[in-house]
């Protein structure tokens, strides 16, 4: 599996091309236009990308400015009515987040001036609610209500592949006999005498799976990631042929999951009128993001073409207070902020610095 999942567990600033670098299994679910990061980057036009793991805001004016807010770090979400400098009312999304020994406050303002009664941030609340309702896809659960009357409570997208009886959990000196279940999402073990003594371990939190010698003989050993608690779990499965079968099946499903992780969130755009309209036009969120670069290039070509035509008027230079130097007067139909959008952006590499 690629590097441990951090996208829903951290708040990060100014990541290189964050909107293009979604991890495996992360899906873009909505893209909201004309959003201003009012507290951090006021007056910057940007977009808010909603994925199944986090919120991403990125500026269209200053290409290095962006935010990545993992859902696990969000304390509260609410909408507010705010006023712009022109004394117009706008709807804003207020996000309270928590980091390591600090708190964050974000305010994302919808500057689109649309009069629709449907909130621009509806998808944010919907996806965040789905994230909270699907924690078993992404969290190690000890002694949880995952078994009822000896039967595993199946998750919505879960398929059970194997159920092995008579498996010893070696976490205590005497061991505990129980059932070992393998699905497409996780492995589950629970005790026969007390089904509340159990563990649910998603593949995303497995660091390694091995067969090792123990004082009880050959045992299946699974170590969890640091974010999954850093546990070392041991299971004795008899006879050895059965142990090998469980090991190979678990390794195989772990490899499949690592290629295409399932984080549990299924968002149906047809419940959001704005997204339903976009879907009817067969325009995906990913294609909208890809089109941004093409649109900037088209605008650049148009700007240059206007200046290269025969008889083009030479514009007198003037002193620009905002930039601090003299520049040619902009062509009709362009604002100073547009100038940064028509210049192609090239991310600095470590070799260039």
From TrEMBL:
Cross-referenced Pfam families: BBL5
Main location: membrane
UniProt keyword list: Cell membrane, Cell projection, Cilium, Cytoplasm, Cytoskeleton, Membrane
Keyword presence, Ion transport: no
Top-level taxon in the UniProt lineage: Eukaryota
A GO cellular-component term linked to this record: centriolar satellite
SMART domains documented for this protein: DM16
InterPro entries from the UniProt entry: BBL5, BBS5/fem-3, BBS5_PH
Family membership noted in the UniProt record: Belongs to the BBS5 family.
Name of this protein: BBSome complex member BBS5 PH domain-containing protein
UniProt organism field: Hermetia illucens (Black soldier fly)
């Amino acid at each position: 599996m690629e590097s441990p999942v951090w996208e829903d567990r951290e708040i990060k600033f100014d990541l290189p091309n964050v909107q293009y670098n979604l991890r495996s299994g992360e899906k873009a679910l909505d893209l909201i236009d004309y959003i201003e990061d009012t507290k951090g980057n006021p007056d910057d036009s940007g977009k808010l990308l909603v994925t199944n793991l986090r919120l991403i805001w990125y500026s269209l004016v200053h290409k290095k400015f962006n935010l990545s807010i993992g859902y696990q770090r969000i304390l509260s979400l609410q909408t507010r009515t705010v006023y712009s400098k022109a004394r117009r009312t706008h709807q804003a999304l207020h996000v309270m987040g928590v980091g390591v020994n600090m708190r964050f406050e974000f305010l994302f303002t919808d500057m689109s001036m649309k009069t629709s009664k449907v909130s621009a941030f509806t998808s944010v609340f919907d996806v965040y609610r789905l994230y909270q309702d699907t924690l078993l896809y992404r969290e190690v659960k000890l002694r949880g209500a995952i078994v009822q009357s000896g039967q595993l409570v199946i998750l919505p997208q879960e398929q059970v592949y194997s159920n092995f009886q008579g498996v010893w959990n070696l976490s205590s000196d005497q061991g505990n006999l129980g059932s070992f279940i393998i699905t497409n999402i996780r492995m589950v073990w629970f005790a026969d005498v007390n089904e509340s003594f159990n563990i649910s371990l998603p593949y995303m939190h497995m660091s390694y799976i091995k067969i090792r010698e123990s004082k009880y003989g050959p045992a299946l050993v699974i170590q969890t990631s640091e974010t999954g608690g850093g546990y070392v779990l041991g299971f004795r499965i008899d006879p050895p042929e059965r142990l090998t079968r469980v090991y190979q099946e678990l390794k195989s499903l772990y490899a499949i999951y690592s290629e295409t992780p399932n984080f549990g969130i299924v968002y149906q755009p047809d419940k959001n009128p704005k997204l339903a309209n976009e879907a009817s036009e067969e325009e995906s969120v990913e294609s909208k993001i890809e089109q941004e670069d093409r649109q900037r290039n088209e605008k650049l070509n148009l700007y240059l073409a206007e200046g290269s035509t025969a008889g083009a008027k030479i514009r007198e230079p003037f002193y620009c207070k905002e930039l601090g130097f003299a520049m040619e007067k902009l062509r009709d139909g362009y604002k100073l902020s547009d100038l940064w959008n028509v210049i192609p952006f090239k991310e600095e590499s470590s070799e260039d610095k």
